[in-house]
């Protein structure tokens, strides 16, 4: 179940790509299938072990093009162990809402993206997330849970200012290129879960809707694909923002003028 549109991101075979906060690896796997040189990055060693195992299985099964590479790296989003400008593309899907120092994490993402590179950041969309928080404290008070709700304007502002120096002068300020919404069918499921209890997986309504989502993911029936396209812009659970780092470094221009 992908959130990011890789055509819009501009992913091409051979691109050096980072999946920051990869979790179970869904986006990393797709980027590998598309021929990327992929690094799946996360703090969770157990999750990463599973991702690495599937990377190997994909290669053995011939699911990736010749020359594609994939590896894992464990670490802290606030101190990415990568060189400046190392990546052509970056994905940070459903991770910033978990990080207290989100601006510091964003600055690290901007730092490791090359000039001219692109980045996709997805977070829970404001309206569906507000409903979840109103219905259930357990939804966001869980350990490692969501600690903030973003508006599109707030997140765009944080990312586009992430390359500025501490005195406010321009650095490698990111360019905002637009947004999408995804997973419109999933928002009602979480509203149900929050209403009946986020851990109450046996509630009949929650079980029935979960079966519907499994059917959507596994079989991709045309009726549910159409329903998703209608619901995504209305109540899509995820918001995806796309950015580009300028080819010309403003930071370099400022330094040269000093």
From TrEMBL:
<keyword id="KW-0808">Transferase</keyword>
<dbReference type="GO" id="GO:0032259">
    <property type="term" value="P:methylation"/>
</dbReference>
<dbReference type="InterPro" id="IPR029063">
    <property type="entry name" value="SAM-dependent_MTases_sf"/>
</dbReference>
<keyword id="KW-0489">Methyltransferase</keyword>
<dbReference type="GO" id="GO:0008757">
    <property type="term" value="F:S-adenosylmethionine-dependent methyltransferase activity"/>
</dbReference>
<feature type="domain" description="Methyltransferase type 11">
    <location>
        <begin position="18"/>
        <end position="121"/>
    </location>
</feature>
<dbReference type="InterPro" id="IPR013216">
    <property type="entry name" value="Methyltransf_11"/>
</dbReference>
<dbReference type="Pfam" id="PF08241">
    <property type="entry name" value="Methyltransf_11"/>
</dbReference>
<protein>
    <submittedName>
        <fullName>Methyltransferase domain-containing protein</fullName>
    </submittedName>
</protein>
